[in-house]
Each structure stands twice: as structure tokens, then as C-alpha cells.
């Protein structure tokens, strides 16, 4: 047996986002369910055939999803909350094992929410909010959070995994089905709202395992030879008691397999050595996968541990599944060679570090990319080619890929020495950062001056920034880019959209307006397009959540802002209204996290460069007379390392946490920096970006869809005058945290925007009343969870009118909040 190549998962959307178009057409009733299901069968087939033709040895199945793979697993094991079952499932015994009919309606309702109106009624007869959504570990992929009840009964509800395996097999392609491991599935979930205090989903493991045993049994009967169980929590800080959970789970699953089907335990995004005792010496698995891109330091320890188990295979993740840079094949082959020397060829699998879900489909469409930079890149298809080459070298000798290796080394060397990468002006400016550049007056002083200038009412209303990107907006943008519209015509179109947006907000009664961001394709891409050091793709899409795709820009060199970006359009919008209007910017950490980042320097240095560029734009806006500037940082929590021991260094350069933690008390930044000059190495990116303004200028920030209670202290130290934060879809979890105490003004989201349902006034009123149990009335803003870009205008109009009416009634009716 020879060394084989493998990936842990393939991008779902398709080369041209075929899945997005299929699903959204189905949601819009433009195609039938049968057309949708046939379309996804064809898309899966295309992906499997492509991987086989590329020469990949181990091809995954069950990595495909109509919306989210975590939701797939919750549905698969019957973890369907009662509120959805009661509406859609007439007879659970007759629920189809495939996602169709009632099952498909239930599935999408869990993901997106559901409303049904009776004819002639404005109030919904059925009104189901969507389930909570949050980030997948430290990525920008959003997953649906499973809900578990203490009395939860599990049942195999979907055999999608079996259907996909059999479909691939009918094509002559043997696949390795992919699953979230049973322990990680429970750890990813949360207790239902009615669960008693002290209940943890992991307590349900014994009830869940029979479903997983049935899955193994069905696939063994179908002829599967191996299964992949992703236990990604093994890279996290875990309670030692969980070791028994892993032992229980895999002892039972391996017993069902009985040697007929191999079980690979898969980990990624970090180092498993702190949890090595969870695996060795007793866990009965056939193979182990480790991520050697994110955690190369674990290699020797894991290799020596695996060597003591003669039948155990080691899958080594040497090709980066999270970033888009071409791999140094010679360096990767050195790792492969060491593994083969220690274990033997047949015990080594050469793999991607994690699923390729996080990288674009292929470079084939990037005909407009600068050839020099394109030569430095590898998307999913190119990564598979790298894996196949490494496997060939392992089996046939490195001379068998001599030509490809030489070309690869030329690319690697060209990137290292390219003059495009380094900008001396940027390097010198970083050296000139001082403590005064990160100092503002105390908030208590700023607050008085800002209130005098802005004269806002109690419970001021605002939105997060973006308004619907309609088909007309997208059509105009495409026409401009293709030359069918001149710049003057396009600019006039955008101004008309801004004018309509301003008028609507005024009519609606919103207090602090936005211009709507119709000129922006994406909150990161738009700013990157105006900065040196970025490059952009035509078709480099990756899935963010559901059918929502983003096209991360690529940071290849030093970041510099050559001229203002938003000043003209923001000034134009402000001239249309007497109400204050926010200048909308994306923060440095989010610019980093939502880009494909250069890997030739520490991430913190790239963030500092971004912070200086954003700082320049903040100054530009203030000089232009803009009184409120929002610097969005939705990715701040996302960037937090998975292990707590690594948090301090990250928060040092992302915010200013370690400085205050070090002193244990609040002091002015001037005092701290003057006494701890060593901290000047970290420009504390958010403060560096946000602090050049006068006290009368109000700085806002926004965050969403993460466990913010982990870093509440750090968020407070950002010292934004106002923070708007997602809080509705997560059901006030942020406010419920025992450690919650935001010292400035705050607007927890009052309704979920990632669902097409329209929240009613009673719902919002109840939510605001609940929020005021934790917040001061004079410091509370009223706003949605997030931006409105993905919604339809009809939904937005009704939701925002309800929102402003709730704020108005709260101002007028003291009794509504007096008991709080």
C-alpha cells in the first residue's frame, strides 16, 4: 500500500456559485423542490468527478450542505426543536429520510425562520425565529447552533450521508463520508431555554451514540471502507473529564465497525498535544489527522506517539485549507519524508490542513489577476494538485516531480524577493507611532460634549450601516464594470439610491442616519480596493453562511491609503439631511480577518498597517464635518486564539487588554504608556485607528455573531463612545453574562436581520424591556442586530417602522420602562 492524498472537505458553492443560485431560486419560488434537489445532485457529481480526475486518492462525501453542515447533523440526529416540529411535522414516524417535503421546510425554517400570514391580516399566524448562529471556531463561517433539551430523544432523521455515499459509488467513486464527531456535536450545541441550571448537552452522549452507531452500521453495509469523524474541540481547552466521553464514544463506534470500516479522528485549527491523553493510549481509532499548518510544533510529539501504535495511520495536514498561498513543496516534502521514514509509506496520508470550505474553488477564472501575483496563489483545485504531487513524490521519488518542483521553487522565491511586497514609507510610519496617538479624554467628558452637539433623544435609533443591495443595484454595478455605464452615470445612480435611502430613514423616524453603502460590494473588499497592498479576484468566493458568499481580498504587501475613500459620498449624504449621519468604516482587525492575509510577517504587523490606514480615513471624515464615525469590528472575537493561554498577546495588538490587565486597575493610557514603554511595540489597533478625533466626534463600533462574553473586558477597553452589538438572534446572551458591564453607550440588537421574518412591535418592546434590566436608559440605543444588505426593501421598511415606533413609545410611556 502506498502513501495517499486526501482532503477533509470541498467547497460547496460550485465554480460559479451554482448552489447559491439554486437555493435562492427555490426560496423565491422560481424553481420547484425537485429542480433544487436535482441541481444539487448534479453539483455534487461535478465535484466528485473533478476530484477524481485531479488524481486525489481519498475523496470526501457528506461534506456538501444546502445551508450548513452543523444544521445537517442536528437534523440528522433528530435535534429539531419542538417549535419547528409542531408547525411542519405532522407525523414524525412518516418524516422522509431525505431532505424533501416537510423535512426540507423544517430544515430551512430552523436556518432562516418562518412567517405565515392569513389573508387580510398584518399579524403573522405563524412566527418562528431562526435558530442562533455564530462563528465556526476562529473562521468567518457561520453555523447554526444546535439546541438540546434535558429530555432530548435522538433518532436517525436524515440519511443524507447514505444517499450521497451511494450516489458517488454509482459513479464509480469511492468516498470517505465526513461527520462531526458525537462529542464535538454536543459541545457545539447549547441547552434549550427551558433547561434547568447545570444541564450541559454533553450529558446526552449515551443517548446520542445509538444514532451514530446506526450511521456506522448503515455505511458498513453499503460498502464504505473508512469514515472521517471531525472532533475539532480537541484543539481547545477541555475539562479532563471529557477524556472519558471520547473513550466511550469511539469504543462503541469501533465495536460497530468491527474492522470492516476504518475510523479516522480528525482535528484541525490548532495543537492537540495538551489533550493528547484524550487519544493515547486507549482510543480505538484507525487513523488520526493533525493540522501542521496552524500547529507545526505538534508534529514530532504526535509522530512519536503514533509510532507506538503499529496499526494507526497518521494524516498530516501540510497544505493550508484556510489561506490561498502556494505551498513550498520542498518544505512540505521534508515533513512527508520524515513521517514516512518513521511510520512507513502505507501509514501516512498527505492531506489538507482542514476542509477546503474556507478557500475559493479554482484560479481558472482569474484571467484578470496580475500574472506575477497569480503565480503565488493556490485555490482549492490547485491545492488538490499540490497534494497529488506530494503523494507522487512520496511513492515514486522526488525526481518524479522535478519539473513541477523547480517551477514551484521559482514561484516561492519570486514572492519572497518581489519589490511589490514592502513599502519603506509604511515601515517608517510604524516606527513613529507614539502613545499620544492612542489617547482620548475620559468618556464622561466626551459624552457631555457629544450630547450637546448631537442633541439626540433618549433611546436614539440607528441602523448598522448597509441597506438592501437590490437587483437594480447589482445590475448597475455590473453595467459600470463592463463599460455599459459611464462613471458619471453610475455615480448618479448611486446618489439617487442614497437620496431615496435618506428620505426613507427620515420618514421612518430614525435619529442617526446612514447613506446605505450602495457603492460597496463588501465591507472589506470596498476598502481594500482603495488601499495599496491589496489585490482582488473575480471569482474567489467562499461561503459565509447559508447562500451568502464573500469574496475575501488578498493582502500581499504593505498596506497604505493613498487618498480618501469615503469622504465625498458621506459629505453628499450628510448634505441631504439635517439629522446626524454616520461615516461608515471597517476596522483593522476585521480587515485582517476577512481577507486572505500575507503569511510572510506576523499578523499583528499587518493589522497595525491597516489601523494607520483607517486612522487616516477617520481624520478625513472628521475634517469634512462628519460628527459620528462608525468603525466596525465584527471580527474581533473571531480572531481570538482558540486556547486561552494565547489570548493575551492577540488582545495586546487588537485592543489594549493586557495593559489594563497588567495593572489591574483603570489608568489613563498616557500614564500606562509612560511607565510601560515596552508596550509601545503594540499599537493597539482599534485605539490607533479611532483616537485622532476631537471629543465632540462620536466613535461607534459594531460586533456580531460570536461569544462576546469571553472578551467583555477587552471590548470595554476599546473605549468606543457607542457600541452596537448583535444580541437578538443569540437571545440576549451577551447581556446575561455575569461579567457584563459596558461603561459607555450601547445598542444591543433588537431584531435579527439574517431571517426574512418581520419582527412585530410587541416582540421588540419585550426585548427592549428585557435589555433595560441590564442597561441604563440614558445609555441605550435601539437598532437591528446587523446590516440590512441581504434583506428585501419590503422587509426592511416594515421592520424599521416597527423599531422606531417602539423607541418612540418608550420615550413617551415612562411606565413601559419604569419598572426596570
From TrEMBL:
Q: What does this protein do?
A: Catalyzes the transfer of a methyl group from 5-methyltetrahydrofolate to homocysteine resulting in methionine formation.
What Gene3D superfamilies has UniProt attached to this entry?
3.20.20.210
Q: Superkingdom of the source?
A: Eukaryota
Q: Which family does the record assign?
A: Belongs to the vitamin-B12 independent methionine synthase family.
Name of the protein in its database record: 5-methyltetrahydropteroyltriglutamate--homocysteine S-methyltransferase
UniProt KW Amino-acid biosynthesis keyword: yes
Q: Report the record's Gene Ontology biological process terms.
A: methionine biosynthetic process; methylation
**Which InterPro entries does the record cross-reference, listed alphabetically?**
Cbl-indep_Met_Synth_N, Cobalamin-indep_Met_synthase, Met_Synth_C/arc, UROD/MetE-like_sf
This chain's source organism reads Paraglomus occultum
UniProt pathway annotation: Amino-acid biosynthesis; L-methionine biosynthesis via de novo pathway; L-methionine from L-homocysteine (MetE route): step 1/1
Stored HAMAP family: Meth_synth
Q: Any keyword Metal-binding?
A: yes
Taxonomically, what lineage is the organism? Eukaryota, Fungi, Fungi incertae sedis, Mucoromycota, Glomeromycotina
Give the matching Pfam families: Meth_synt_1 (PF08267), Meth_synt_2 (PF01717)
Amino acid at each position: 500500500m502506498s502513501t495517499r492524498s486526501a482532503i477533509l472537505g470541498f467547497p460547496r458553492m460550485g465554480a460559479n456559485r451554482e448552489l447559491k443560485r439554486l437555493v435562492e431560486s427555490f426560496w423565491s419560488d422560481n424553481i420547484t423542490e425537485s429542480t433544487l434537489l436535482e441541481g444539487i445532485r448534479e453539483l455534487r457529481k461535478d465535484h466528485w468527478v473533478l476530484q477524481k480526475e485531479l488524481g486525489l486518492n481519498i475523496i470526501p462525501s457528506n461534506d456538501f450542505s444546502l445551508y450548513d453542515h452543523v444544521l445537517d447533523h442536528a437534523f440528522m440526529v433528530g435535534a429539531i426543536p419542538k417549535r419547528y416540529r409542531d408547525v411542519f411535522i405532522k407525523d414524525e414516524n412518516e418524516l422522509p429520510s431525505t431532505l424533501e417535503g416537510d423535512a426540507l421546510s423544517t430544515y430551512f425554517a430552523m436556518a432562516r425562520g418562518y412567517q405565515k400570514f392569513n389573508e387580510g391580516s398584518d399579524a403573522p399566524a405563524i412566527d418562528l425565529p431562526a435558530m442562533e448562529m455564530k462563528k465556526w471556531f476562529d473562521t468567518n463561517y457561520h453555523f447554526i447552533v444546535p439546541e438540546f433539551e434535558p429530555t432530548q430523544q435522538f433518532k436517525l432523521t436524515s440519511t443524507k450521508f447514505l444517499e450521497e455515499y451511494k450516489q458517488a459509488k454509482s459513479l464509480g467513486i469511492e468516498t470517505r463520508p465526513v461527520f462531526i464527531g458525537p462529542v464535538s456535536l454536543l459541545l457545539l450545541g447549547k441547552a434549550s431555554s427551558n433547561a434547568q441550571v447545570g444541564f450541559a448537552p454533553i450529558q446526552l452522549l449515551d443517548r446520542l451514540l445509538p444514532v451514530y452507531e446506526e450511521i456506522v452500521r448503515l455505511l458498513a453495509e453499503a460498502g464504505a471502507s473508512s469514515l472521517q469523524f471531525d472532533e475539532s474541540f480537541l484543539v481547545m481547552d477541555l475539562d479532563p473529564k471529557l477524556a472519558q466521553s471520547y473513550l466511550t464514544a469511539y469504543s462503541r463506534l469501533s465495536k460497530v465497525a468491527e474492522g470492516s470500516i476504518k475510523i479516522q479522528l480528525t482535528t484541525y485549527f490548532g495543537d492537540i498535544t495538551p489533550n493528547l491523553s484524550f487519544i493515547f493510549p486507549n482510543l480505538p481509532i484507525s487513523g488520526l489527522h493533525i493540522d501542521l499548518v496552524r500547529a507545526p510544533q505538534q508534529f514530532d510529539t504526535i509522530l512519536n506517539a503514533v509510532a507506538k501504535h503499529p496499526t494507526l495511520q497518521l494524516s498530516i495536514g501540510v497544505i493550508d485549507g484556510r489561506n490561498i498561498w502556494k505551498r513550498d513543496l520542498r518544505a512540505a516534502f521534508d515533513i512527508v519524508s520524515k513521517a514516512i521514514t518513521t511510520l512507513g509509506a502505507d501509514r501516512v496520508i498527505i492531506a489538507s490542513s482542514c476542509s477546503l470550505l474556507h478557500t475559493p474553488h479554482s484560479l481558472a477564472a482569474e484571467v484578470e489577476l496580475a500574472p506575477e501575483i497569480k503565480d503565488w496563489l493556490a485555490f482549492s483545485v490547485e491545492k488538490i494538485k499540490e497534494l497529488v504531487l506530494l503523494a507522487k513524490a512520496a511513492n515514486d521519488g522526488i525526481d518524479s516531480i522535478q519539473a513541477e518542483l523547480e517551477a514551484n521553487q521559482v514561484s516561492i522565491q519570486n514572492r519572497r524577493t518581489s519589490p511589490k511586497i514592502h513599502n519603506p514609507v509604511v515601515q517608517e510610519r510604524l516606527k513613529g507611532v507614539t502613545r499620544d496617538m492612542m489617547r482620548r479624554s475620559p468618556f464622561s467628558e466626551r459624552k457631555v460634549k457629544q450630547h450637546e452637539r448631537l442633541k439626540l433623544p433618549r433611546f436614539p435609533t440607528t441602523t448598522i450601516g448597509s441597506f438592501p443591495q437590490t437587483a437594480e443595484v447589482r445590475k448597475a454595478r455590473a453595467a459600470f464594470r463592463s463599460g455599459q455605464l459611464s462613471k458619471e452615470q453610475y455615480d448618479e445612480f448611486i446618489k439617487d439610491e442614497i437620496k431615496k435611502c435618506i428620505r426613507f430613514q427620515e420618514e421612518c423616524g430614525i435619529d442617526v442616519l446612514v447613506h446605505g453603502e450602495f457603492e460597496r460590494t463588501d465591507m472589506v473588499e470596498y476598502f481594500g480596493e482603495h488601499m495599496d497592498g491589496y489585490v482582488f479576484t473575480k471569482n474567489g468566493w467562499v461561503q459565509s453562511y447559508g447562500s451568502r458568499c464573500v469574496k475575501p481580498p488578498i493582502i500581499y504587501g504593505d498596506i497604505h491609503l493613498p487618498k480618501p475613500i469615503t469622504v465625498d459620498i458621506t459629505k453628499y449624504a450628510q448634505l441631504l439631511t439635517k439629522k446626524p449621519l454616520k461615516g461608515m468604516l471597517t476596522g483593522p482587525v476585521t480587515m485582517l480577518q476577512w481577507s486572505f492575509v500575507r503569511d510572510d510577517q506576523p499578523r499583528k504587523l499587518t493589522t497595525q498597517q491597516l489601523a494607520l490606514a483607517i486612522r487616516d480615513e477617520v481624520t478625513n471624515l472628521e475634517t469634512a464635518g462628519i460628527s459620528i464615525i462608525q468603525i466596525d469590528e465584527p471580527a474581533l472575537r473571531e480572531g481570538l486564539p482558540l486556547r486561552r493561554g494565547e489570548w493575551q498577546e492577540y488582545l495586546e495588538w487588537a485592543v489594549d487588554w493586557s495593559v489594563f490587565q497588567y495593572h489591574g486597575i483603570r489608568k489613563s493610557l498616557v500614564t500606562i504608556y509612560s511607565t510601560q514603554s515596552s508596550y509601545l511595540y503594540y499599537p493597539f489597533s482599534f485605539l490607533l485607528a479611532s483616537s485622532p478625533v476631537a471629543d465632540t466626534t462620536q466613535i461607534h463600533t459594531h460586533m456580531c455573531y460570536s461569544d462576546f462574553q469571553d472578551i467583555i473586558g477587552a471590548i470595554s477597553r476599546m473605549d468606543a463612545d457607542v457600541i452596537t452589538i448583535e444580541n437578538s438572534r443569540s437571545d440576549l446572551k451577551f447581556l446575561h453574562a455575569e461579567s457584563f458591564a459596558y461603561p459607555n453607550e450601547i445598542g444591543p440588537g433588537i431584531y435579527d436581520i439574517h431571517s426574512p421574518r418581520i419582527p412585530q412591535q410587541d416582540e421588540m418592546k419585550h426585548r427592549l424591556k428585557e435589555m433595560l434590566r441590564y442597561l441604563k436608559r440614558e445609555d441605550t440605543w435601539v437598532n437591528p442586530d446587523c446590516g440590512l444588505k441581504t434583506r428585501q426593501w419590503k422587509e426592511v421598511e416594515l421592520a424599521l417602522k416597527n423599531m422606531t415606533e417602539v423607541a418612540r413609545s418608550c420615550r413617551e410611556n415612562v411606565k413601559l420602562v419604569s419598572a426596570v
